[in-house]
């Protein structure tokens, strides 16, 4: 039973939108590729747990704090009288361990020791559990999901599950008897309550509305769409077509991702999408998912599903 679902990291969504409209510095591009690969690995792990027993409690993407120290957990499984902590890695290629340090076999460069991160999370989680009044053993595991990963000179004592071992590992887990859902749920609810909303590890480049390329990116390639007919846009590079209504709405959502604090006006969406000179066309499209408030130049749109939740509103 998944109690806390895994969501696409906000940092990844922003970088994905940014690189469509600007050339990222090398360090930010590499950071994006690492985030993309890491998230893909986490989703692969999630698929492994799809057939988990119903009396398991699964919590994903926990951002917690203990003793003023923040820590992240990729996945947490509460089963029987044990908590399983998983650190998921999507490493690809050949690596080796020497004197407790990890290296890339190809470059011979040292990489961060993922065991240290796992041990840190386990220590902080144990302290938090004690504070919450739970005294359950924790079993921590590094999960290497990429079948093209190989680790040489690894001691048999390290708590790692390699690709060839995963099927046996999860089959063994399935044989563990469950405990009362009430006890599982009480712990899960308290952990979720302690989750932090703000990611302290967020790392984004600086950018402004003015410097980003305007238009609507093609969903198939890296080019931008151009008008094809009154109701259709086309990519002149790959030939992909899209209705103007859906293309504009996706572009507005992209705008929300990149500029959550910036007001949305009819003029700004007109400039952002750059595929029509008609304000009426933009207003008609916005009205499909947004509710107009106010009049004239002071009017604004609120997402219909968010209006009653007092979430972000946008000026038109």
Describe this structure in words.
- By secondary structure, the chain is an alpha/beta fold.
- It has two domains: 2-193, no CATH class; 225-315.
- Helices cover 34% and strands 24% of the residues.
- It has eight helices and 16 strands.
- It has helices spanning 10-21, 26-48, 114-132, 166-174, 181-193, 244-258, 266-273, 279-286, and strands at 2-4, 57-66, 69-79, 82-89, 93-98, 101-104, 110-111, 138-144, 149-152, 160-161, 225-227, 232-235, 241-243, 290-293, 300-303, 314-315.
- The strands form four sheets. Strands 1-2-3-4-8-10 form a six-stranded mixed β-sheet. A four-stranded mixed β-sheet has the order 7-6-5-9, with no helix packed on it. Strands 11-12-13 form a three-stranded antiparallel β-sheet.
- The longest helix has 23 residues, at 26-48.
- The protein starts with a strand and ends with a strand.
């Amino acid at each position: 039973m998944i109690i806390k679902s895994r969501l696409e990291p906000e940092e990844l969504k922003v970088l994905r939108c940014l690189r469509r409209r600007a050339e990222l510095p090398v360090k930010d591009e590499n950071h994006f590729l690492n985030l993309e690969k890491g998230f893909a690995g986490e989703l692969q792990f999630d698929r492994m747990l799809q057939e988990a027993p119903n009396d398991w409690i699964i919590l994903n993407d926990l951002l917690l704090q203990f003793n003023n120290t923040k820590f992240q957990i990729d996945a947490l499984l509460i089963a029987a009288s044990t908590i399983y902590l998983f650190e998921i890695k999507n490493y690809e290629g050949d690596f080796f361990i020497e004197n407790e340090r990890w290296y890339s076999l190809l470059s011979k460069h040292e990489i961060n020791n993922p065991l240290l991160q796992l041990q840190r999370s386990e220590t902080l989680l144990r302290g938090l559990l004690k504070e919450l009044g739970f005294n359950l053993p924790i079993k921590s595991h590094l999960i290497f999901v990429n079948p093209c990963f190989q680790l040489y000179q690894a001691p048999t004592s390290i708590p790692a599950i390699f690709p060839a071992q995963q099927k046996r590992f999860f089959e063994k887990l399935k044989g563990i008897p469950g405990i009362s859902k009430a006890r599982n749920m009480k712990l899960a609810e308290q952990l979720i309550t302690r989750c932090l909303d703000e990611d302290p590890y967020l790392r984004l480049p600086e950018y402004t509305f003015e410097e980003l390329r305007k238009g609507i990116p093609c969903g198939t390639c890296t080019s931008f769409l151009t008008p094809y007919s009154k109701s259709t846009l086309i990519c002149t590079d790959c030939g992909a077509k899209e209705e103007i209504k859906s293309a504009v709405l996706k572009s507005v959502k992209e705008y929300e991702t990149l500029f959550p604090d910036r007001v949305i006006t009819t003029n700004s969406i007109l400039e952002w999408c750059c595929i029509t000179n008609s304000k009426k066309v933009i207003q008609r499209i916005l009205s499909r998912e947004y509710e107009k408030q106010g009049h004239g130049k002071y009017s604004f749109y609120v997402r219909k599903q968010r209006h009653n939740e007092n979430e972000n509103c946008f000026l038109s």
